[in-house]
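Here is one chain, start to finish.
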Amino acid sequence: QVQLVESGGGSVQTGGSLRLSCAVSGGTFSTRNMGWFRQAPGKGREFVAAISWSGGIKYYADSVKGRFTISRDNAKNTMYLQMNSLKSEDTAVYYCAAHRAGDLRGGEYGYWGQGTQVTVSS
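Its structure:
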């Protein structure tokens, strides 16, 4: 059974930075495409970023492009999301997920973490 555990969330001021981590166990992390999603209060879950198994292909939502960076360390079975220049609209619960099929930005993700809260305030 694949398990994903996010960490690194917290409260920061506008313009600050956070680094989220997603530790994966129970599967072959190095062969899995992965993604980050988020859900703000009262809104649906939205795609944030995705990375191919090798790290060679990355996608970002337009709203985070240039501010967020997705990366992975296959030796540590861990994926990261470096978030800079944070805005209040980035406030959400952030989830990591393992891709199963289809497009990395909108396809099927089969395994999900429990989420970590990110709160950005002025």
